[in-house]
Amino acid sequence: YRLYQHFFPYPDIIPKDKYVLISGCDTGFGHTLAIELDKQGFNVLAGVYTSNNIITLQNKLSPKATVFQLDITKQEDIDSAYELIRKKTNTLHALVNNAGVGIPGYIDWITLESMRKTMDVNFFGHVAMTKTFLPLLISKR
């Protein structure tokens, strides 16, 4: 591993003027990542599912971070987020498709309706986010 690090060092990423969009920042990984990237100096764009979590997360982030409601299963929410972000920047450094749901249980316990909702969030929602924000991600290249 040390040899690998010697020949392939991590690139130094300077966070100044770099915008990172993260979905699913209500709790868990997305929440923690938003806080950490904000501390490192990135411009964090954090999407939360429930409006109650907007203030909670805003209180933990610097004033340059933006927290907004985002349901990735609704194209109108994604489009609103796109418009909000385009007012701030023409370029995204990264998109973190973190939003997700899980339904525990065996396949014969879970209804087809529940499986469809899971796929709407965990697959189609991420595809919609990627397709919408791809122009901003490509523009940085």
From TrEMBL:
One of its GO terms (molecular function) is oxidoreductase activity. It comes from the Eukaryota. Coiled coil: none annotated. GO terms for biological process: steroid metabolic process. InterPro entries: NAD(P)-bd_dom_sf, SDR_fam. Pfam families: adh_short. This is Uncharacterized protein. It comes from Adineta steineri.
